[in-house]
Amino acid sequence: HNDHTPMTVLRSPLRSPLRSPLYSPLVGKWGAFSSEALALFARFTTPPTEARKTLINNRINAAKASGAWDVRDGFYMMAAADAQAGQRNWKADAFNLSEQGTIAFEADRGYTSDGTTGYLATGFTPSTAGGQFALDSAHLSVWSRTDAVNTGVSIGSRTSASVGQSFMTLRSTSNLSTYRMNQAAAGTAATVTNSSGGFVSRRNGATTRALFRNGASVATDTTVSTTLPTAAIVIGALNTGSVIGSFNTYQFASAGFGGNLTDAQILAEYNADLAYLQGVGAA
After folding, report:
1. What CA–CA distance (Å, rounded) separates 111 from 248?
2. Residues near 71 by beta carbon (within 8 Å), at least 6 away in sequence
3. Of 122, 162, 188, 258, which one is least surrounded by beta carbons within 10 A?
């Protein structure tokens, strides 16, 4: 035996490369934050904790991976550390939320209207915004933390009572969800017996609409598209030609809107929302 023979060092697969943040494939857990996440952090008045940064970054990365990020015009995680953070549009420093009337914010849970005056204004008018939200490619989304019957609207706007309608109600006294997207006709309603969880209403063609809850399709129909709403989208109520009504009393943890989301993207967004909300104790 030669004492001067060089020793061969074996690298344990359990230590490399996951031990090194530089090489970690789990970006957002140990690695660098995405540029989109860093931009969002900079727009928070109170800097988020490291744990919160990771949750936010993971949520954004999931949306980027599925392609949903590019389709969104607005995405809001109202289950935030504080109200200012909960009002930020994650996509860009535009169409940030503003509180209107009496609406209560709860940290890590979301916003709840008084059902009479309270709602969140987005400032996004589908007919003029020029975003991803288009006549035959559009979606609305909310995450409700409340299971109850309520005739109020969760999110949406319309030009008038029968023109350019885009909105969702989650669970009426008849256990029906009304979902309309860029249409004049009322269309059909879907049976929904639980108003909690993640809801998405989408239009992916001139005569194709669908409603999803918790990543699974609830209903489809063939109501034809007509025009985009000329009123700005609101959350927790319905904007009809700049008149706000149909207030809702559910607690909303997240919301969004934009172009068509595919079935796979809707499921991915549900799972990503769920992971974030579980991380803050809201789900």
Report:
1. 11
2. 132, 139, 258, 259, 260, 261, 265
3. 162
Say which DSSP state 134 is in.
B
**Average of per-residue pLDDT values in the chain:** 91
Please give the Cα distance from 170 to 192 (Å, whole number): 7
pLDDT digits (tens, 9 = 90+) for 188-197: 899 999 999 9
As a whole number of angstroms, the distance between CA 258 and CA 245 comes to 23
What 3-state class would DSSP assign to 268?
A: helix
Tokens 């849970």 label which residue? 109
pLDDT of residue 31: 54
Distance, in Å, from the CA atom of 54 to the CA atom of 279, rounded to the nearest integer, reads: 10
Amino acid at 83: A
Q: What is the DSSP string of 248-268?
A: ---EEEEEEEES---HHHHHH
The whole-number pLDDT of residue 268 equals: 98
Give me the mean pLDDT over the 148-166 stretch: 97
Cis status, amide bond into 126, omega within 30 of 0: no
> What sign results for the dihedral spanned by CA atoms 217, 131, 113, 158?
negative
pTM here is 0.89
* Rounded-to-integer distance, Cα 193 and Cα 96, Å: 32
3-state secondary structure of 85: helix
Whole-Å CA distances, 91 to 48, 75, 100, 177: 17, 6, 22, 28
Question: Can you tell me whether residue 180 is helix, strand or coil?
Answer: strand
The one-letter code for the residue type at 15 is R
